[in-house]
Amino acid sequence: MTKRRAVLAIALVAVFGAAGCSTKVVDASSSPSAGKLATGPGVTDTTITLGVLTDRTGPYAGLGKAVEQGRTLFWDDRNAKGGVCGRKVQFVLKDHGYNPQNAVTAYASIKDNVLALHELLGSPEIAALLDSIQSDQMLTGALSWSSSLLSNPYVVISGTTYDVEMINAVDWLVKNKGLTKGDKIGHIFHEGDYGENGDAGVVAAAKEYGLELLPYKIKPTTADLTAQVTALKSAGAKAILLTVAPAQTASAVGVAAASGYAVPFVANAPSFSTALLATAAKPALEKQLYVATSIAPFSATAPGAAQVRDAFVAKYSDAIKIQYALFGYAQAQIMAGILDTACKNNDLTRAGLLKAFQSQSHVDTNGLIAPLDFSKPGGIPARQTYILKPDSAAAGGLTQVQDLFAAPLAQSYTPSK
C-alpha cells in the first residue's frame, strides 16, 4: 500500500496460548513458572505497557477506530480477569495521521517505554520503521499483509498475505465461475509494494491454471479506470482481479456494469470499503464484486465471530460495524498468547517476546482470522481466505460466500526474494 496516500485519502476518508500449541484460550491470566522473571522496557511489577501507532485523523481513521474498539473489548475483559503475568496490560497510543514521518517521530517518543508495539497501522509507516523495529528488537503487530515484511523477524503479520489472497481468488474463480485453461483474466494493481505483492500471486496462479494474464499497473492516484476496463472487455477477459484502493474498485466495477461487461471481479481486502455501499456504485458492487480476505466479516455466524460481535454491539451500540473490529480483537488475542508464553518462560524482555512469538505454531482465533503459524521465521503465517460479497443489508456490509480455504498452490507457494 506504499505510495497510495493520495487516493486513499479520497477513498477511505468515509470509512469507517501455549508454545507449539494453541492460543485459543484467552480468558485466564498467566503466571510465571518457578524462578526469577526477567523484564524489559515497559514492564513493572503491576503493568505491561505496549505501544500503538495508529491513524486517528487521516484516511484510515475509521478503520483504526474499529481496530481500537476490538482491541479495547479484549483487553478490558482480560485485565478484569488478572491481565498477563499478574500485570495489567496498558497502552501508549500515538496518532500518526497516516504520515510516515509522524510515525517515525511518534515511535522515537515511546520506544524506550514500551515492551512491544501492539499495533503499527499502514504500509508506508511500517516501511519507514522497519530498520528501527529490527535494531530495537521491537516486536510489532503490523496492520499490513505484504509478503515483503516477512524478512523482518519482529513483524507480526496477523493474516494471509496479499499474494496468497490472490492465489486463492484465482482458484475460486476457476472452481466457481467457469474459468478454464486458455481463458484471459485481467489484473489491475497499484505500482509499489501493495499492488505488486498482489500481482505476484496473480502471476503464479495464472501460470498454475494455464490462464492468460493481462496486467495493468496503475498509479495510486489514478481516479478513472475506464481505459483499463474497456481494454480488458475488448480483449475478452473473463474475470478481473483488483489490488487497488476502494475508490478505484468503485470506478472499475462501475465502468464494467455501465457497459454491460458482466464479469466477476475479485479484490484484495484493502480494495474494498463499506463506505462504497453509500455511493452510486452500490448496485454494481453487490452484483459483480467479491473480496478475498483472511478476516471474517462482521456478519459472520461462526461462534467466535458471533460472540465478539455481540459483545461489540453491547459495548459500542452506536459504532460503525466493520470487520476490522473483529481483527482488532483477534490481534489482541494473538499478542496475549505471545505474552502468556513469555511469562511462562520467565522472560518478559524483548528477546523473550521474540522467542515466545516464534514458538506460536498453532494460533487459533476461533475463526476471526485464518489459523496462523508463526514458528517458521520468514514463512507466510496464514494461507487461507474467506470469499466475501458486498451486501448493504448485512451488518458490516459484507456477507460470506466461501468459508476459509486454501488452494493447493496457496499451500505450497513461496514468495520470490
CATH-wise, what's the superfamily of the largest domain?
Response regulator
Please state how the strands of the largest beta sheet are arranged side by side: 8-7-9-10-11-13-14
CATH architecture of the largest domain: 3-Layer(aba) Sandwich
Annotated CATH topology of the largest domain: Rossmann fold
| SSE pattern, N- to C-terminal | HEEHEHEHEEHEHEHEHEHEHHEHEEH
Number of domains: 2
Poorly predicted regions: 1-28
Question: What fraction of residues sit in β-strands?
Answer: 15-25%
Structural notes for this entry:
By secondary structure, this protein is of the alpha/beta class. It has two domains: 5-160 and 298-382, Response regulator (Rossmann fold); 162-293 and 387-412, Response regulator (Rossmann fold, 3-Layer(aba) Sandwich). 38% of the residues lie in helices and 18% in strands. The chain has helices at residues 5-11, 61-80, 100-110, 123-135, 162-176, 193-209, 226-235, 246-258, 282-288, 303-315, 324-344, 350-357, 408-412, and strands at residues 38-39, 47-54, 88-95, 117-121, 140-143, 155-157, 184-190, 212-218, 240-243, 265-268, 289-293, 347-348, 385-390, 398-405. Helix 2 crosses helix 11 (324-344) and helix 5 (162-176) runs parallel beside helix 6. The radius of gyration is 21 Å and the shape is globular. The two termini are 19 Å apart. Mean pLDDT is 91; it is low at 1-28.
